[in-house]
Design a protein that fits this description.
The structure holds two protein chains of two kinds. Chain A is α+β, with helices and mostly antiparallel strands. Chain A folds into three domains: about 15-115 and about 185-250, Aldehyde oxidase/xanthine dehydrogenase, a/b hammerhead (Aldehyde Oxidoreductase, domain 3); about 340-420 and about 570-730, Aldehyde oxidase/xanthine dehydrogenase, molybdopterin binding domain (Aldehyde Oxidoreductase, domain 4, 2-Layer Sandwich); about 430-560, Aldehyde oxidase/xanthine dehydrogenase, molybdopterin binding domain (Aldehyde Oxidoreductase, domain 4). In chain A, the strands form six sheets. Chain A has a seven-stranded mixed sheet with strand order 3-5-1-12-9-10-11, sandwiched between helices. Chain A has a six-stranded mixed sheet with strand order 8-13-14-15-7-24. In chain A, strands 16-25-26-27 form a four-stranded mixed sheet, with helices on both faces. The longest helix of chain A has 23 residues, at about 495-515. Chain B has two domains: about 60-170, 2-Layer Sandwich (Uridine Diphospho-n-acetylenolpyruvylglucosamine Reductase, domain 3), CATH 3.30.465; about 175-280, CO dehydrogenase flavoprotein, C-terminal domain (Enolase-like, domain 1, 2-Layer Sandwich). Chain B is about 35% helix and about 25% strand. The N and C termini of chain B lie far apart (about 45 Å). Classes of the chains: A alpha+beta, B alpha+beta. The structure holds flavin-adenine dinucleotide.
């Protein structure tokens, strides 16, 4: 694998958001709300404005004058009436130095009439909301679907397996904190920022500020890890209003503690599962999901309906009823975290499935093979399942389990987890190819976030499409003012969607070249005498014969786009809310081997194998990187990572000492195996790989713990204390 | 966080700088692995740091059976010393437990004592091997047992113009240190248990970490450990006494009930482990 960014990054030459500087720049600090809930009486900025070095201090009352159209009333830059979470920014200060900005921010007097916050969703709903759920207090989204005759399935069942699972809030822990640099000049708003979605950030920031998207330019930097945390606008609106207020370039950067205090990530959930069984087969399922969505606003919830899909697959379930409730709490709004909610849901459903198999006395892998989707099946929502590598993965897993049982010491627990995902190419994108005699340039909007999708993935696709060597291919990104539109780096869609756009542009470019060459056959690109040339059959034509003088200088430019289509769900199954259809079906089958210290509850992962449905591997190094990275991150969710909150809405572990991501000492040998031949939504049938490898990790580990001990831990993460408690109960 | 840094090369100069508050609060700086974080968090208000880097305290010396460890010796060097591991295995195991190897290249024994954290991985074993702290100050030198030096949570018996010079351990001891954490590496111990048996008297010392206000010996448990090879029923009594008598609390790292349960388990394991020769553990 060749990564064009490797040398630059090793030498420290890559400019991240945190490195941004501009002449005349000032430093910004956000003023945090002192309590988690309450009525905001006033924000007094007088003392801050007089403080040394301060060039601007702004609060809720200043927005009207700074924002020509007042901004988005639902999402004001600063709240003017109600505090939604502790540390919510209520004002901002810019000063000549960071120390001066910090000192001035401390002089801002925020007067709040505090009210008791809601922190734990189970405090509000110890059981579940009843009545007209969408109107129940604090419910910001309610989804409901059903199919088949569940009452009959339950009535005729041999037994109904009932469990309640709880999952934890987790953070992204990208190495690079959020940071941006904003300037406003002559009605032109410009922000340089570390973002996974330059266009998404532009649309979102423009909406928040109430300005036309075209008047805002977003220029990305290298991104030091995203995992979903750098999606929509975050710091940009604050920096932009301060830039408007001060007339100076404004730098706003989070420290690591801010990342925790303001983190918009996965929050806790409670999942109740009831599954009926007859003749060794699942006949029906009822699911209730209670999801903490923090201070997310009503109507802004995608997670509830999306999550529920994971609680009904990837297994055939003839009859079901599901209900999901998103509950507003006084925490930062939830946000996407690598495969949002899927690892949590799969932990619940695949622990449940594993337990069902054990209760039936059936081998858990066999039990899954009995039920798992294959192409032609229907999902719970009636969508036809496409090519899906779950059975192939499970068969490999069965062999691995048998081998480990033979070779690992007695007492070792072995567990399997099965997750699924879909390459989100429904979020589309465009590229511009620029062909010169020297190289083929791929112009597109995304910046490399670390996974290699841009610097390597797109190049790998182009190598394979055009048969050109790596050094003739170059990916270029500038800003939203010049780049073709793209939705962003998320949803495992980047290489797949942009790859298909490259494919479309490439096909058009080759057709145009063939036409100019007046050739019957198809054109290809080749290298001839050190220059790019067009091949037609055995002939090779120099570009100088086919391109105009201007094109020879600036390149032949051809654009391509891809807006993927997902299948359809059966609307008759939906009672209320939004549920989602998939563009393709990606399986992830994992096997974990653990030992459990029965007295202390400590879990040690000895071995790990990941069988990953990829469609087609476009780069073996990237494949390994994504699978290993996903597994390691998943081990954190499985074993140690959780955000802890005081009843007053204060985060208790806002740092890396007590928010424990795995260290290399906890990472076992990971075997990463590609399952090929089940094509997906990307070019050459490739499937997205950013998210699937994290999904089944908590389930595989929990099932291994159950295998080792006979005890089922119903709550993430499986800390030693939780495991010890489960062992005491059993 | 802004501070000035002084790097005196003599003890006298270091003590003079410490006594001088004209530039604001002053604090000694060893490895800085605690102090710099405390400054960042606002837990320390020091404005001038006096680095101990140039003082002649990065030492490890045997004086007959007695081991003297200089206050600023990096823990990594203490941990890699084969003689220490053979004669005071519990001390080496305590050192192994501290953070990561990278951290141990900076962190020091003096700093760990200076911080006096409830969850320190070094204080339990220092208590169990009867270590003493040697202090040097403007008023002269004094020496006191670790238990007396520790006055409370993050509070020690140390004057403003006084420094920890070294730590002294009277003799080789059969000993061990065992701990429990949520994450094995680079985490804070929920509970740590150190035990040591004196070669001369056959009586055991047992000290716990993760307790409030600071690590402490538990005499109620020690009374059951009087034999060279304690009988299982005595170990059980000691384990239960330790679990009962320690002052544990529920905090974000563990519940009180889990800590008590861990203590009983870890005491059993520690007494068994201490009897295994260091090379075979
Ligand atoms: C990531 C991480 C992991 C850690 N893991 C552990 C762990 O597992 N177990 C554990 O016990 N600790 C752990 N620590 C805490 C810390 O590393 C240890 O307490 C270490 O021994 C402190 O030594 P230092 O030299 O860095 O102290 P410093 O930070 O330099 O000083 C600590 C305090 O002692 C004072 N001081 C230092 N030297 C002297 C002296 N000679 N005389 C008088 N006062 C002095 C300082 O003024 C300061 O108040 C961890 C810290 C970090 C950052």
């Amino acid at each position: 694998m060749t990564r064009s960014d490797a040398a630059l990054k090793l030498r420290g030459g890559a400019e991240y958001g945190i490195d941004l500087e501009a002449p005349g720049m000032v430093h910004a600090v956000l003023v945090p709300a002192p309590v988690a809930a309450g009525a905001l009486r006033s924000v007094d900025l007088a003392a801050a404005r007089r403080a040394p070095g301060v060039v601007a201090a702004i609060g809720p009352a200043d927005l009207a004058a700074l924002l020509p159209h007042g901004g988005d009333p639902d999402r004001p830059v600063f709240p003017s009436t109600r505090i939604l979470y502790r540390n919510q920014p209520v004002a901002a200060v810019a000063a000549e130095t960071l120390a001066e900005a910090r000192a001035a921010a401390r002089l801002v007097r925020v007067d709040v009439e505090a009210t008791p916050p809601l922190v734990d969703i189970e405090d509000r709903y110890p059981d579940w909301p009843t009545g007209l759920a969408s109107d129940a207090p604090g419910v910001v989204a309610h989804v409901h679907a059903r199919h088949g005759n569940l009452d009959a399935a339950f009535a005729s069942a041999e037994f109904v397996h009932r469990e309640v699972y709880r999952t934890s809030g987790i953070e992204h822990v990208a190495l690079e904190p959020h940071a941006c640099l904003a300037e406003v000049r002559d009605g032109h708003w410009r922000v340089r920022t570390t973002t996974q979605t330059p266009f998404g950030a532009r649309e979102d920031a423009a909406e928040i500020l109430g300005i036309p998207a075209e008047s805002l330019e977003v220029e990305g930097t290298w991104v030091g890890g995203g995992f979903g945390s750098k999606g929509a606008a975050f710091l940009e609106p604050y920096a932009l209003v301060l830039a408007a207020a001060s007339g100076r370039p404004v730098r706003l950067a989070f420290g690591y503690r801010d990342e925790f205090f303001q983190g918009r990530s996965t929050l806790p959930a409670v999942i109740r599962l009831e599954t009926s069984v007859r003749d060794g087969t699942i006949t029906g399922r009822r699911v209730r999901l209670l999801l903490d969505t923090g201070s997310s606003l009503p109507g802004r919830d995608f997670a509830t309906g999306y999550a529920i899909g994971f609680l009904l697959g990837p297994y055939r379930i003839p009859a079901f009823e599901v209900e999901g409730y998103a509950i507003q709490t006084n925490k930062p709004p939830f946000g996407p975290h690598r495969a949002p909610f899927a690892p949590q849901c799969v932990f619940a459903i695949d622990s449940h499935t594993d337990g069902l198999a054990r209760r039936l006395g059936v081998d858990p892998v066999e039990f899954r093979l009995r039920h798992v989707w294959q192409a032609g099946d229907r999902t719970a929502f009636g969508q036809e399942v496409g090519p899906f590598g779950a059975i192939a993965g499970l068969e490999r897993a069965r062999t691995t389990v048998a081998e480990w049982r033979r070779t690992l010491p007695p007492g070792t627990g072995i567990g399997v987890g099965v997750g699924f995902w879909s390459t989100s190419t429904g979020a589309g994108g465009e590229v511009r190819l620029r062909l010169t005699p020297a190289e083929l340039v791929i112009e597109q909007a995304e910046h490399e976030i670390g996974s290699g999708s841009i610097v390597r993935g797109l190049v790998a696709v182009a190598e394979r499409l055009f048969g050109l060597p790596t050094e003739r291919l170059r990916v270029v990104t500038t800003s939203t003012a010049r780049d073709p539109y793209d939705s962003g780096v998320f949803g495992s869609r980047t290489v797949a969607a942009l790859g298909r756009a490259i494919e479309a542009a490439g096909t058009a470019m080759l057709a145009r070249l063939a036409e100019r060459a007046k050739a019957k056959g198809t054109a290809t690109l080749t290298v001839q005498d050190g220059k790019l040339a067009v091949g037609i059959g055995a002939r090779s034509i120099p570009l100088s014969e086919l391109l105009s003088a201007e094109e020879l200088r600036d390149g032949l430019v051809v654009e391509g786009r891809h807006y993927g289509r997902s299948g359809a769900i059966d609307p008759s199954r939906v009672v209320e809310g939004s549920f989602y259809a998939y563009t393709d079906f990606t399986a992830a089958v994992h096997v974990a081997a653990v030992t459990v210290d029965r007295e202390t509850g400590s879990v040690k992962v000895l071995r790990y194998a990941a069988f990953q449905d990829v469609g087609t591997t476009i780069d073996a190094g990237m494949f390994r990187g994504q699978v290993e990275g996903g597994v390691v991150m998943g081990l954190g969710s499985a074993l140690t990572e959780e955000t802890l909150w005081d009843p007053d809405g204060r985060m208790r572990n806002p740092g890396l000492l007590d928010y424990r991501i795995p260290t290399i000492a906890e990472v076992p040998e990971i075997e990463a195996v590609a399952i090929e031949g089940f094509p997906g939504a990307g070019p050459f049938g490739m499937k997205g790989l950013g998210e699937p490898p994290i999904i089944p990790v908590p389930a595989a580990v929990a099932n291994a713990v159950a295998d080792a001990t006979g005890a089922r831990v119903l709550e993430l993460p499986l800390t030693p204390e939780r495991v010890a408690r489960a062992l005491m109960v059993d | 966080m802004t501070f000035s840094l002084a790097r005196p090369s003599t003890i006298v100069e270091a003590l003079r700088l410490l006594a001088d508050d004209t530039e604001g609060p002053t604090a000694p700086l060893a490895g800085g692995t605690d102090l710099l974080l405390d400054l960042d968090d606002g837990r320390s208000t020091a404005r001038r740091l006096v680095s101990l880097d140039k003082l002649p305290w990065k030492t490890l010396a045997w004086d007959g059976p007695r081991l003297n460890v200089g206050a600023t010796l990096p823990l990594a060097r203490l941990g890699s010393d084969a003689t220490v591991r053979a004669r005071l295995p519990g001390l080496s195991e305590g050192v192994d437990a501290v953070g990561s190897l990278a951290l141990r290249h900076r962190a020091t024994l003096g700093g760990n004592l200076g911080r006096a954290a409830p969850a320190s991985d070094l204080l339990p074993i220092l208590l169990a091997v009867d270590a003493t702290v040697r202090l040097v100050g403007t008023a002269g030198r004094r020496e006191l047992p670790v238990a007396r030096f520790l006055r409370g949570s993050r509070q020690v018996d140390l004057a403003k113009d006084e420094l920890i010079e070294s730590v002294s351990i009277p003799e080789a001891r059969l000993s061990t240190y065992v701990w429990q954490r949520v994450r094995p590496a680079n985490d804070v111990s929920q509970v740590g248990v150190a035990v040591a048996r004196s070669g001369s008297s056959a009586s055991w010392r047992l000290a716990l970490g993760g307790v409030l206000p600071v690590p402490t010996r538990i005499p109620e448990a020690e009374v059951h450990l009087t034999e060279e090879r304690p009988r299982p029923e005595d170990v059980e009594l000691a384990a239960n006494a330790a679990a009962t008598h320690a002052r544990f609390v529920t905090d974000k790292r563990a519940s009180e009930a889990y800590r008590r349960r861990l203590v009983a388990t870890l005491v059993r394991r520690a007494v068994a482990r201490a009897q295994i020769p260091p090379g075979e553990r």
